[in-house]
Amino acid sequence: MMHITEPLPTDKRARLVFGLDWRAYPVKGGRAERRRYADAFGATHFVEYKVGDELIGGFAMPESADVKGARLYSGAARVALHDRIKNRPAALVLLQDGLRVHAVFVVRGAVRSDEVLSPETAQARRLEIEQECLKGNLALDTLGAGDRIGDIDEPFQASELLGNRKAGRITKVPVSIPAAIPLLFIAGATIVGGAKLMDALSPPPPPPHVPTYAERYAAAVRSTFSRALPRASALGPALLAAVGTNESVRKGWVFKEANCPTAGYCTMTFRRQGGTFADFESAATAAMRPVTFSRDGLTSNARGPAVPKVDVLSAKESSQWPSEQAFIEAVQTPPQRMSSQPFEIRAYGYTVTLGETRPLIPAPVAGEGGGHIARIIKQGDWTIEGFRWQAPLLAKLPPNMTLESLKVELRLNQGAGATTSSDTGDAPYGVHFTAKGKYFVLD
Fold first, then answer.
1. How confident is the model over 390-423, as pLDDT tens digits?
2. DSSP string spanning 227-260?
């Protein structure tokens, strides 16, 4: 199924097209190969781009009303040529557009499939592609945007396809009139007749394999734990210690906050307290660069400490994970167990918020084969807020908790008017952290 989008905001005559048929053929002799595939698909339009010694060609037959007065561009070609996609071993990009999902599968820069699917069909197709990559030993990254495409490795917005405005132009297949028309007509008739004879003699292909619930669940487990999931008990205290080694005051600039992912570097923000841009530039070390300043002139950003590598969570440990209720009891200190709010617990400035758990994939529908699994893995979101002196509490978190981000901020004492928190009894200033991540339990 082919889909042509509404006019693009950058060019009212331009539209993106998804759902083309794609083939790869050598650059040498590419014109003849293009003609052959255009005839095979009954295509009137095509798009080509080069990868190594091959041309990657997409073929389509849009309605004349869609073509009239419009410039068409291939959405899959723009995905494959995007800087974030073209150098990856394999990438699946899922872009939700209302009740349809544009699914583009790219392997080493070449479009393998370009489909327009329903959200339900897109999930099944995603599992097939994940299994295909596992068999081919390809590292697959899943990117996209939409509330019905499932978990992704990285966000990828449809607006990112508007940048390279000349990429993926779809043009009309050129008309070629050879000199020996009768000979080509006879040869074409022979090929078509032979193909039809082979179709008549060959048995129909077997129906496509529909993965069972157990197979889809196993693929979801592999996909979830294929990327690094650092343990919160190890990475949280390590990041707090790493951020704490940095100077908090630099020539009239005071540390405001640090935001740390699970890989790469933290980003540190400083607020101006009388200093100038030149002062901060001169005080910044080589490890802090590049340095940027906000437009209002009140804050500056610099590179923070590197995120340390720690032990990661593995699905092989799932047999040792607790049930959901046992986990809730494990993260509660004795004062917290007396709280009247079991899912948002406060004690001395240390707040634990646990989200509801959900299975890695939806439960099997009635009558679906292969649906019984003794114990399934469920995941939920968690948030913990506290002060740096409570880092030992993070180090004692259960091993089934992973960290996704950590924010460290300096809450300054505002003077005589500062009051203590009515909820915790603590003064509302100091080095405060907000940690977020996921926890995994066995149902």
1. 888 888 889 999 999 999 999 887 554 444 544 4
2. S--BBHHHHHHHHHHHHHTS-SEETTEEEEEEEE
